[in-house]
Specification:
Blueprint lengths: L1 E14 L3 E8 L3 E8 L18 E7 L7 E10 L3 H4 L1 H17 L7 H16 L7 H13 L14 E3 L4 E3 L8 E2 L1 H12 L12 H18 L9 H5 L4
Parallel strand pairs: 3-5
Antiparallel strand pairs: 1-2, 1-4, 2-3, 4-5, 6-7, 6-8
Helix pairs in contact: 3-4, 4-6
């Protein structure tokens, strides 16, 4: 079935001498993988630079559900994200976000609200000039809402609660399993849940606190997404913001 849709590049890898395998999250079809021939000249229609992670494209493809690798007929830049690939700090954040989404959306079906959230978030970061050190924390916490396991705030009654990472709820006593946060760190999770892109500059954290927050967020995801791995890009992210 021929289809035109927006797509976010998640991951690409060279295959042989003249091809690439590219994973994308599309607005209309969810996660798709493509086998793409590399252009032999600079005038080729499908340019290699289109398939850098987090590039937002308008694509035309032939979608056949029975195939693992789909055919890409055409691609054009939909929304240029200039600063994400030119500013070192934003580049480190982008590498982490792309690595994270590559695994988090491994089997994601069509979800237009999720697609809109990701693209609008990337556009916001690209346009932001300062005070975005907490971007990745806010992005991850709010993304969980679209994946169906956003933490439950209904039981939050104060600062002395534990947080059950498996159940996604606050509780007055520690659960019997080890996947929980003590009250001090449960407050930290609550802090992340209060952040959004417009107020996150008001939440002041040092590098140690910010790194602990991202560790907790990734632990939460690992408990709710099967086979979610350690992210190699995390090490670079942790070195930011002395």
């Amino acid at each position: 079935m021929l289809s035109k849709t927006e797509a976010i590049v998640l991951h690409s890898i060279k295959y042989g001498e003249a091809k690439m395998i590219v994973d994308m999250f599309t607005r209309l079809h969810g996660r798709l993988s493509f086998m793409i021939g590399l252009p032999k000249t600079q005038h080729g229609r499908l340019k290699k630079q289109y398939f850098q992670p987090l590039t937002i494209l308008d694509i035309e493809c032939d979608v056949r559900p029975q195939l693992q690798l789909q055919k890409l007929n055409d691609a054009q830049i939909s929304t240029p994200l200039v600063s994400l690939s030119t500013e070192p700090t934003k580049l480190a954040i982008s590498m982490f976000i792309a690595d994270f989404l590559h695994h988090a959306l491994r089997s994601e079906q069509r979800n237009e609200a999720l697609f809109a959230y990701i693209t609008s978030s990337l556009e916001w970061l690209d346009n932001c000039q300062r005070d975005y050190a907490n971007f990745h924390l806010s992005f991850l916490m709010h993304l969980s809402r679209f994946l169906g396991f956003y933490p439950n705030l209904d039981d939050y009654q104060g600062d002395s609660l534990f947080f059950d990472l498996e159940a996604g709820t606050f509780c007055p006593t520690a659960p019997m399993h080890r996947h929980h946060l003590i009250p001090q760190e449960a407050q930290m999770l609550r802090l992340m849940m209060r952040m959004d892109f417009h107020n996150m500059h008001l939440f002041h954290m040092n590098r140690q606190q910010r790194n602990r927050c991202i560790e907790v967020a990734l632990q939460f995801y690992r408990l709710h997404l099967p086979d979610f791995p350690e992210l190699r890009s995390l090490a670079v992210l942790k070195e930011l913001w002395e």
